[in-house]
């Protein structure tokens, strides 16, 4: 499958999953503290790695959030199937994206070096 088509599917999946998290998910472990940062779909559309960012990671147990996301990944796949018309709906693999936290740490280190 062409990379351009895969990019469109990834973007649409991110939109659908973000909307479902915002409006439909009621799990208190993840409600309001996670957001979708990116989606990567394999070329054969069998798997989709969905990367989530956790807000306020200092006081939030990321293992509990990951567990909560794994509990609802079937629901998220169902929502994707309802919204996107593609032949194969990828199996969702949940991953925590810590790149934002990592960037903040590097920024703090660089600011400390300037002083």
Automatic annotation (TrEMBL):
Keyword set, alphabetical order: Cytoplasm, Ribosome biogenesis
GO cellular component terms, A-Z: cytosol
Domain of life: Bacteria
InterPro entries xref list: KH_dom-like_a/b, RbfA, RbfA_dom_sf
Biological process per Gene Ontology, one example term: maturation of SSU-rRNA
Cellular compartments annotated: Cytoplasm
SUPFAM superfamilies linked to this entry: Ribosome-binding factor A, RbfA
Keyword Cytoplasm found: yes
Molecular function in Gene Ontology: ribosomal small subunit binding
NCBIfam families named among the record's database cross-references: rbfA
Function per UniProt: One of several proteins that assist in the late maturation steps of the functional core of the 30S ribosomal subunit. Associates with free 30S ribosomal subunits (but not with 30S subunits that are part of 70S ribosomes or polysomes). Required for efficient processing of 16S rRNA. May interact with the 5'-terminal helix region of 16S rRNA.
Classification via HAMAP family: RbfA
PANTHER family: RIBOSOME-BINDING FACTOR A, CHLOROPLASTIC-RELATED
Family: Belongs to the RbfA family.
Oligomer and partners: Monomer. Binds 30S ribosomal subunits, but not 50S ribosomal subunits or 70S ribosomes.
Protein name: Ribosome-binding factor A
Annotated source species: Fusobacterium ulcerans 12-1B
């Amino acid at each position: 499958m062409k990379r351009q088509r895969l990019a469109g599917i990834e973007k649409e999946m991110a939109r659908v999953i973000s909307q479902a998290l915002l409006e439909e998910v009621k799990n208190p472990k993840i409600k309001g503290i996670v957001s979708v940062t990116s989606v990567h779909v394999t070329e054969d559309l069998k798997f989709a790695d969905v990367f989530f960012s956790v807000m306020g990671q200092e006081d939030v147990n990321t293992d509990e959030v990951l567990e909560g996301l794994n509990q609802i990944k079937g629901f998220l796949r169902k929502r994707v199937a309802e919204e996107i018309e593609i032949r194969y709906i990828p199996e969702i693999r949940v991953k925590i994206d810590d790149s934002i936290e990592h960037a903040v740490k590097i920024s703090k280190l660089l600011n400390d070096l300037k002083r």
